[in-house]
Amino acid sequence: MKNQNNKVTAVLFVVALALTPMVQATLPAQGGPGSVSSRNAPTARPHPAALARPSLVSAAPIKFGTPAPAADSASDNSDASGAGLADQNLPMISVYSTDNVIRGKTGTFVLRMKSTLSALKLAGMYVNFSLSGTAQNGVDYKLVTSPAYISRSGYGVIQIEALANPRASAFNQAYSVIVTLNAGAGYKVGKSSSAIMWIKQGTFVPPNS
């Protein structure tokens, strides 16, 4: 009986020795950072593709149709002020003088260019105008067309060459010619932008009378 108990004890001892390595291998896997398996285990490294892939960061959504920043409005204001300054530098055209004319003679509208930039006077320029009044262009005076030329002196003329009265000779009514300056490129129109001339029926005076 003793021999059988000794054999059983010996078998259990052998089994215990066989299970010991398995228990030691299992326990470190459940342990903390100080365990043998944790120190000897290779460090996990990210895949190269994962390093190259940019991280997705949540950004504020883009809103379309948002108002322009204040800098744009400031730029618009500067552009407007620059345009106003350029307009101030433009030469000003006005009707300087006029006179009445009898039929068969020539009257003139004198135009003047006033500018702070002397270089513009040296170049001269063309000015747009229109004619109206009771006198008929091409009937009561020779046909006149726009524009008029202002020379480098700063003055220009619109000549009205009055014709003989196509109506009854006894009809001595005066007819008006009104000139009006019109806007154009490179100049601005002054306050004196219009003037009137009268075409009158002259009285014939025989020579040596």
Description:
This protein has 209 residues and is an alpha+beta fold. It has a domain at 88-200: CalX-beta domain (Immunoglobulin-like, Sandwich), CATH 2.60.40. The protein contains five helices and ten strands; from the N terminus they run ααααβββαβββββββ. Strands 7-3-1-9 form a four-stranded mixed β-sheet, with no helix packed on it. The radius of gyration is 53 Å and the shape is rod-shaped. 14% of the residues are buried.
The N- and C-terminal alpha carbons lie at a distance of 188 Å
- Topology-level CATH name of the domain at 88-200: Immunoglobulin-like
Radius of gyration: 53 Å
Instruction: Give a quick account of the main beta sheet: strands, pairing sense, barrel closure.
Output: 4 strands, mixed
User: CATH class of the domain at 88-200, anyone?
Assistant: Mainly Beta
Helix coverage percent of residues?
Answer: 25-40%
Query: Which of globular, elongated, flat, extended, rod-shaped describes the shape?
Result: rod-shaped
Hey, roughly how much beta strand do the residues contain? 15-25%
Averaged pLDDT: 74
Number of helices: 5
CATH architectural arrangement of the domain at 88-200: Sandwich
Low-pLDDT segments: 27-38, 204-209
For the largest sheet, list the strands in their spatial order.
7-3-1-9
Summing up helix and strand content along with how strands pair, one would put the structural category as alpha+beta
* Number of extended strands: 10
What's the CATH H-level homologous superfamily of the domain at 88-200?
A: CalX-beta domain
Instruction: Give the SSE order as H and E letters.
Output: HHHHEEEHEEEEEEE
